Structures are given as structure tokens and as C-alpha cells.
Automatic annotation (TrEMBL):
Name of the protein in question: F-box domain-containing protein
CDD domains named in the record: F-box_AtFBW1-like (cd22157)
Any Pfam family matching the protein: F-box
Coiled-coil blocks: none
F-box domain segment(s): 9-58
SUPFAM superfamilies: Calcium-dependent phosphotriesterase, F-box domain
Entries under InterPro entries matching the protein: At3g26010-like, F-box-assoc_dom_typ1, F-box-assoc_interact_dom, F-box-like_dom_sf, F-box_dom
Lineage: Eukaryota, Viridiplantae, Streptophyta, Embryophyta, Tracheophyta
Length: 385
């Protein structure tokens, strides 16, 4: 065993550093972690800040809302040391941001809703920022002011960004009638044009979207959980609208979360009425018109030491492995579940997390936001391709 390790280390030492870096830069984050064990020299190259922006990154932690504190959020790291060079307090944002609220995250960028000084009487506005580089951009005002809660509700918004496809990003702001969960329209911002476009809902009247505040961006579409056990989707131009049922007529359940992992779209259902379990389905071919969802895994809630009913909240999906993170409301614990080995791991105890009642989000905030550091490239300036 030791002889084999010695041979691998010797072989690694023969290669020049620049060639090793070029090889490592082509690896996914999961493989990069394994290669850091080849030798001390390789580990040093991988951890060197000068090389960091060239390497793929993976989930480093989760932000969660903590109103009343300063800042009004907390960052839970998933490793012994925090992600290097990342300002999780967002102290680089200007004082004009005033009161800040984390709204959404996507592939290293954060969407922040800012409320300026009360005396300014200016409406709230959005800022998109990169905690790993300190870059930030203030967005122009949409047609309907962010966070509006009068006759319209514009509190729900999501960020869309895929650095592998483009440096441009998108922001989706949902327009709902106040007090109802039905999505009437979606306003979409593109950093390429630096403009918002307001689109009336393209979902047919018999498929009005009763939004559960669970949504994710994946492969050019925003995907939303619908209370009728379906997933609704809209593209970045508001031209293509999709509605796909996940469960068959013989299976009942509520859609409680949608996310992506290992380049596939996942949907989680609560099957409390029949098996007291969480059912996980995967969309194998996102680009297919068939939209066929395949059953992937069943998680027994009693087996997770959770009580029956809505006593948990799906916090995040790991982008590179079979881990699901959830919050146990009864014990106030952030936990991870490994679908491959059915292992449960307690990460930490968080205490009270706001805006969750029986596992559902009933207020404006997404209480948990997964974070993957983005060291490579610059935050695209508005209007720049």
C-alpha cells in the first residue's frame, strides 16, 4: 500500500507544475478533491490562491437567514476551514445598500434585495454580487418594485447563472396577486441587455401555477414547484413555458422542493399520506419534449428520526454528489442525507430559522441558500456579451 502511494507520488513529481495545473483545471470538483491526495506537491498546487480561479469548485457552505442580526444571515461552512478569500458578510457592498436581504444564489453569485435609508423613500432594489471577488452590480428597477406587498406580491425572485455557458446572468421576479400563490407574470432581467422584460404567465388557465416558493435555475430555465404535484418552467426570454407532471395518477404527494445535482434536475415529493416518506424523482433528459421523470430514491422520515407531517425543510442539493441537506424543525438541526448509503449526518444546530411553518416557506425569504465559490472570470457588466 505504501509502496503504491510512493510510486504515484514519484510519478507526479516528474511532471512540470504548469502541465499538472493544466490537467487539474480540466477536472470536475469531485475529482479534484481526490487528486489532492496524490502528493503534497499536488495538494499545494490545488490550494494555491494563484491557481484557484482555474479550478472547478464545489459546495462550500450554506447561507441561512437570521433577521435581527448583523448581517442578517449566517454562513455554515461544510469543511473545517472557510472557503478562502470569500467575504460571506458581503462587507464590500456600499452603504447605499442599507438594509439587505439574501434572496437567492446560483453558481457563485448572490441576489441581494436592498432597502435604502428610510428618509430617502426610494423603492427597494436588487444587487447581484460575487462574495469570492468582491464584485457587485446594481440592477435597474423592474416594472414592479422588488418586495412589493400591496395589491401585488413581488417578493419571490431567483437568480440564473451558468458560468460554463456564459458570463451573463438573469434575474426572474415573480408577480403574484397579494395573498394568493398564483403566478400572474414573470419579469426577467438579462445582464446582456441590462433590461427587464415583463411577460404574462404562459401557463394555460387550467394550469395556473400555485407557487410553493421553491425554485431553481437549470439549463436556461427557471423551474418552480407547483402545489398540484408538477414542475413549471420558463426560459430566460419568457418565450417558452413548460408544465410537467412528475407523479402518476396512482401516486399522491406534494412537491416540496426542486433542485439540480450532477447535471440533472431533481424533484422531491412528500408522501405523508401513504408511506410517510420523501420521494425523489430525476429528469434524465432535460432537453427532451417527453419530460419523463424517473423515480430515484425514497427516504423514510421515521428512519431519519423525523416526526410525521411537515417537520423538515429541504435546504439544498449537493451539486456534485448524492447528498441532500435538510433542516429538522423538531431538533433545529441542519443535516445531510447520503442517498447512496442512506447515511444521516448532523452538521450543526441552528436554533430558530425564520419563515418556516411545518416545512413550508410562508414569507418572502428563502431561508437556506447553497453557495459554490466562483473565483474564475469577472461578473459580467450590464450590456457586455
Amino acid at each position: 500500500m505504501e509502496e503504491g502511494s510512493s510510486r504515484r507520488a514519484s510519478a507526479a513529481a516528474v511532471l512540470p507544475d504548469e502541465l499538472i495545473i493544466e490537467i487539474l483545471a480540466r477536472l470536475p470538483a469531485k475529482s479534484l478533491c481526490r487528486f489532492s491526495c496524490v502528493s503534497r506537491a499536488w495538494r499545494a498546487l490545488i490550494s494555491d490562491p494563484a491557481n484557484r480561479r482555474r479550478f472547478a469548485q464545489t459546495l462550500s457552505g450554506i447561507f441561512f437567514s437570521r433577521p435581527g442580526s448583523k448581517p442578517p444571515w449566517f454562513f455554515v461552512g461544510l469543511s473545517a476551514s472557510p472557503p478562502p478569500g470569500v467575504d460571506t458578510a458581503l462587507s464590500f457592498l456600499p452603504p447605499t445598500c442599507g438594509k439587505m436581504e439574501l434572496v437567492n444564489s446560483c453558481n457563485g453569485l448572490l441576489l441581494v434585495r436592498c432597502t435604502g435609508a428610510r428618509e430617502s423613500r426610494s423603492p427597494p432594489f436588487y444587487v447581484v454580487c460575487n462574495p469570492a471577488t468582491g464584485e457587485w452590480i446594481t440592477l435597474p428597477q423592474p416594472t414592479h418594485a422588488p418586495g412589493l406587498m400591496s395589491n401585488l406580491d413581488t417578493c419571490s425572485a431567483a437568480l440564473g447563472f451558468d458560468p460554463a455557458a456564459s458570463s451573463n446572468f438573469y434575474v426572474f421576479q415573480l408577480v403574484q396577486e397579494y395573498g394568493r400563490d398564483i403566478v400572474q407574470a414573470v419579469e426577467i432581467y438579462s445582464s446582456e441587455t441590462d433590461r427587464w422584460v415583463l411577460r404574462e404567465s404562459g401557463w394555460s388557465e387550467d394550469k395556473l401555477i400555485h407557487f410553493t416558493r421553491q425554485m431553481t435555475y437549470f439549463k436556461g430555465f427557471l423551474h418552480l414547484c407547483d402545489m398540484s404535484s408538477a414542475v413549471a418552467s420558463v426560459d430566460t426570454e419568457g418565450q417558452t413555458w413548460r408544465f410537467s407532471r412528475v407523479l402518476s395518477d396512482t401516486i399522491s404527494g406534494n412537491c416540496i422542493s426542486v433542485g439540480s445535482s450532477q447535471r440533472r434536475l431533481l424533484c422531491v415529493y412528500d408522501d405523508a399520506w401513504q408511506n410517510d416518506a420523501m420521494l425523489i424523482y430525476v429528469l434524465e433528459d432535460h432537453d427532451s419534449e417527453e419530460r419523463v421523470w424517473t423515480f430515484k430514491h425514497s427516504i423514510s422520515k421515521p428512519g431519519l428520526t423525523l416526526r410525521g407531517g411537515w417537520d423538515y425543510y429541504i435546504a439544498a442539493f449537493h451539486p456534485d454528489s448524492d447528498l441532500i441537506f435538510f433542516f429538522d424543525l423538531s431538533q433545529k438541526r441542519l443535516m445531510s442525507y447520503d442517498m447512496k448509503h442512506s447515511d444521516v449526518h448532523v452538521i450543526c444546530t441552528l436554533g430558530k430559522v425564520p419563515n418556516i411553518v411545518d416545512g413550508m416557506v410562508f414569507n418572502v425569504r428563502r431561508p437556506f441558500l447553497p453557495y459554490v465559490p466562483l473565483y474564475s472570470g469577472a461578473l459580467a457588466s450590464p450590456g457586455v456579451n
